[in-house]
Amino acid sequence: MLLISQQGSLLSALLSALLSPLLLIYFRILTSIARNSKRKLTFFIAHSTFFVIVMILLPIVSTAKAKKNEKLHLYKEIIYERNRKDEEITITYSDKKIFDDLIRTIDIELNGECLQCDVRLRGSNFQPVLYTDNDYYTLSTNQGYFKVPSNPPQNMIFRYGTDERASTLTVTAFFKTDNEDVCSLLSKTITLEAQNE
Length: 197
Known about the structure:
The protein is built from two helices and ten strands. By secondary structure, it is of the alpha+beta class.
């Protein structure tokens, strides 16, 4: 809804910016015609013609805007089912201690045809990822996410440096179903604690 209202106000601003100079020129023409008393009939005809043109253009513009809004609403609504049994998320992880840091490897297996996947990490009051070769984005001082492309592979591996404090991993996935209007939503959260080798 916000997108539609912003486009509507943008359209109004654009029309105002384009039509204002034309209306000023038209007003000057009308005032020059009105000064000449012999041309009062011409003034009346010009003024009436302008009014008729504006009245014809207003419904055309509003109809075009309504059709544009209809096109925005024609996109199919996607309905999400929760937790189908034949689709699962399997998460395993292992740690390798190097000096004071842990190199954590997370292996995520998606069973089913996944459309979108979100992999988020959260620490209690710390950033759980110190460094990584994967695309990792910080959301706040204690959480972030790994960038996962659309239609991700079934097996994904993430490696990163962390410390021995526990963190939380949440994997949320949208799976394709037999019905193209319905997606299956599955989310799994585990606590990642330091593993001793």
